[in-house]
Every structure is written in structure tokens, then in C-alpha cells.
Amino acid sequence: MNDTRLPIRFYFDFISPYGYFAALRIEELAARHGRTVQWSSMLLGVSVMKVMGLKPLMDTPLKGSYTGRDVLRHARRLGLGFRRAPEAPPMNPLTCGRAFQWALRHHPAQAAALALALMDAYWLGGLDLSTPESLRAVALPEGIDPGELVAGAASAEAAGWLREAVDASLQAGVFGSPTIVVDGEMFWGVDRLEEVDRWLATGGW
Amino acid sequence: MNDTRLPIRFYFDFISPYGYFAALRIEELAARHGRTVQWSSMLLGVSVMKVMGLKPLMDTPLKGSYTGRDVLRHARRLGLGFRRAPEAPPMNPLTCGRAFQWALRHHPAQAAALALALMDAYWLGGLDLSTPESLRAVALPEGIDPGELVAGAASAEAAGWLREAVDASLQAGVFGSPTIVVDGEMFWGVDRLEEVDRWLATGGW
User: Fold this and answer.
1) Mutation for testing the A interface, residue in B11, B43, B47, B54 having most A CBs under 10 Å
2) pLDDT digit string (tens) for B42-87?
3) What is the tens place of the pLDDT at every residue in B12-52?
4) In CA terms, which of A203, B6, B26, B128 is 20 to 30 Å from A166?
């Protein structure tokens, strides 16, 4: 049974284009069912390479070139002008992950908006956000001070929070981005948003 | 632009539950857009393990257990009673692939129905169809003689046709089951049928 008091959990990695596509839609989807969204970090570099023992998606023969084409097709369908080629080597996602973890503690009401701002800057703006200083170039949500964000993202505390969040994601069985968990039921992939919608509407099957 | 004279290509492996789910819906989808379907063999054992260098899906940590659950959820949504556990080791798909290749040459009008009959027997009936003789237990489409099918599936000719079909699938860039190709545009995954539907309706984007 659905319990509308419980938030939907939304797991994403900043370097996942499909995570970005889902991030753009998840709040509207949840709100339509009276739900809030708990945005949660995961790292594909840990789940895919260390835990699952697979190679990076874009380095996988056949699948890599299909995915590059599919990402751009998806972006066109959403009307998004991507400035980052899906085939380009991804940035190191740790800085963004740590900045997001810092915001969850210090500006919880703006944390989701910060995540979206970082993803916009990366995918649409083509910025490399792999160092704390690089975050200064991002159009930040109101209320988040660039200097504080840079210091927060560079802090050992934020690195620890991100490690804990990634451990928790693996404990929850999360391996891909995006992953959505509704009342304990897990859905992987942006192409499952319609299924999540139906699950929320019906209470499951 | 769409060209309704061209068939949609539908690639599947008999041991892929998502291929089965798509097989149940592809003809209706195509017909709605005035298209026919060219059913085509692929083998995950070749594309996933030999070409992509990945391990079998169900043996992949985290992803395997999610997939087992997801397959049964998908089956419930379609109202299908699965008698084969997704976690069970798959049968060897070569016999079914060869039987299908034989049917494409000798009973082209029944080949898709044969593929569906074999998948029904495997997924719903729980039959192991890894030897030619085992095909006698399948409820075959009218016009296909069980003895001829068994002999066809056991023939060196059919083995060669399957090898050629799998080579052709790899040449076309196909790596997963199901894969649907519409006028040169490739879509991977049963959760992309809605996108294929939209592509056919709009001519692409």
C-alpha cells in the first residue's frame, strides 16, 4: 500500500545523463501523487566498477555507441541542448557529490535545486565541475553562497558524508542512475518513470 | 522519414524475458502504424559475453537480484504466470534459435508464431528446450510438423543460418534483447516500446 507520508527516494550520479533526465521530472511526478522526494547520492564508479565488476558504459563495445546516440535522442525529445558529448570522458563526480551532501546539511530546502543547477551546468553548460573552485562558475540557487559552497565541497566532512551516502545506496541495492524507490519497491532507469507513475497511482501490482 | 513499405526489425533471444515481453506486443504495435515485423535472432551469449566482455546479467551483483524482481513485476503487470524463475540458469538457446531459422526458410508465414510458441513453452510452461527432441513437447503453430521441426533444428544447415543471423545482428550493432530497429534507428529494451510507438507516429525527432 502507498503511504503518502513517505518520501520517494531518488538516487542519481552527476555524471549520468539518464539521472539528469529523471532529475528534471521527478519532483513533478511525485507531487502529482502527494509525495515529496528525498534526493540521494550514488556513484556509478563504485557500483558499476567496484561492486558489479563491469566496465564503464561508454567504454563497452556496441553499448557505448548506442548509448551516445540514445542520450542525444532523449535530450532532443526533451528539447534540451546538450553541450557535453555523451562520449566525452566524464568529469570526476566527487566534488559535485560532496557539494550536494554539504547542501543537504546546511541548506536542505535548496539541496535539490543545487543538484539540478550542477547538472544543468555540466550537461547544458558544458562546464567541468571536478574541483571545488570550479563551482564558482555555476548559477547557484538563491541562499547558497559560492564561497561557503566551495569550502563545503572541499571539506573532509563532506567527503565522509558522501562515502556514507554511497555505502547506504549499495546497502539499499542501488546500482544504476537513476534509481527510484517507492515504499521499498525499486525502479531502475529513466524509462521506468511511467511505471513509477502507475505504481504510485495504483499502489502496486 | 517513415517508409511504411519497410518492415520493423525485431531482434530477440529466446532466453531473454524482456525479449519475450516485447515479442508479445510488437506485432500489434507495428500493425497500428501499417508496418510488418521482421523477426530476427540474436544471442546474448555472444553479444554480452564475447563482444562486450560482460558477465551474464543474472550473475552480476545487485543488478541480478533487481532484474529477477523486475521480471516478475513485469510479468504480473502483463497478467502472465511465469513458471520459470528468472534466477534459474537459462537453457541453451541454440536449439530454439536454429528451429526458428529453419522455420524462416521453410514456413516463413509461421516463423513468428513458432518463436512465440517456443517462448510461451519456456517462460509459461517451464519447459527446457535445449535439445531438438524437446521441441516435441511444444504446442506448435498449425502447419509445422513436429518431426520436421526436430530434424530442422538438428541440421547443420540451421546451425549455419543461426551463425549468419547472429553475425548480422552484431554488424547491425545489436547487443541486447529486445532491440527494435525502425528505418535505421535503434531502440534497446522493452521499456522503449512507447518510444518506438512515438517514433513511428511522428517520423522521429
Assistant:
1) B54
2) 999 998 888 898 888 889 999 999 999 999 999 999 999 999 999 9
3) 999 999 999 999 999 999 999 999 999 999 999 998 888 89
4) A203
Residue B2 has pLDDT above 90, yes or no: no
B194 contacts in chain A (CB < 8 Å): 194
Q: Which of A61, A63, A192 sits opposite B191 (nearest CB)?
A: A192
The answer to whether A178 touches A18, Cβ cutoff 8 Å, is yes
Q: Measured in Å, how far apart are chain A's first and last C-alpha atoms?
A: 10
The CA angle B96-B38-B2, to the nearest 5 degrees, is: 155
Q: Is B36 helix (H, G, I), strand (E, B) or coil?
A: coil
Phi, psi of B112 (to 5 degrees): -65, -40
Distance CA A203, CA A2 (A): 5
CA A99/CA A118 separation, integer angstroms: 9
Is residue A97 within 8 Å of A162, Cβ to Cβ? Answer: yes
Query: In whole angstroms, how large is the CA radius of gyration of chain A?
Result: 16
How far A189 CA sits from the closest chain B CA (Å)?
9
Q: Residue B129 — φ and ψ, nearest 5°?
A: -115, 40
SS3 category, A41:
strand
Q: For residue A26, name the pLDDT band (cuts at 50, 70, 90).
A: very high
> Chain A partners of B195 at a C-beta cutoff of 8 Å?
191
Instruction: For residue A107, give how far its alpha carbon lies from the nearest alpha carbon of chain B (Å).
Output: 32
Closest-CA residue of chain A to B67 = A188
- Residue A140: DSSP 8-state: P
Largest CA-CA distance found in chain A, in angstroms, rounded: 48
In B51-93, where does DSSP find H-type helix? Answer: 63-78
CB-CB: which of B51, B63, B76 is closest to A175?
B63
Instruction: Identify the residue whose cell numbers are 519532483.
Output: A27
Neighbours of B1 (CB within 10 A): 5
Model confidence at A30, pLDDT cuts 50, 70, 90, reads very high
pLDDT tens, A48-75? 888 898 888 889 999 999 999 999 999 9
Which candidate, B180, B184, B169, places its Cα nearest to that of B46?
Answer: B169
Rounded Cα distance, B186 and B114, in Å: 25
Write out chain B residues lying below 8 Å of A47, CB-based.
62
